[in-house]
């Protein structure tokens, strides 16, 4: 068996909490995203997944081997893989609907976890729930009676 090792100059950090979240996701959904490694078994992408796999006691992880990279290209790929992912955004209304739908599945007993297990904080979940809530003005307008 080969031993993977992290890229010594990896600038991306992973908190203890995030590694625990990644580990929980791996246990819940399986290892859905292989690590990228070079021909020397150095991790290019997936340092957090590797740390989480080790924490939950996995002996093997899926990898995609990327060969023939110069040191400079490997360094560029490590940065690009991490940074480009941060450039994504959210369709907040769609996200709020998905979270609401998942909460309904949790409430119905179809899923055995909490929304917070998906990596969203409590305040974020409240904020997304508010996106779908009727505006306060609409509720107040229903209570106002008009007299002539």
Automatic annotation (TrEMBL):
InterPro entries: Chromosome_partition/occlusion (IPR050336), ParB/Sulfiredoxin_sf (IPR036086), ParB_N (IPR003115)
Domain ParB-like N-terminal per the UniProt entry, residue ranges: 1-83
Pfam families: ParB_N
Protein name, per record: ParB/Srx family N-terminal domain-containing protein
Organism encoding this protein: Methylobacterium marchantiae
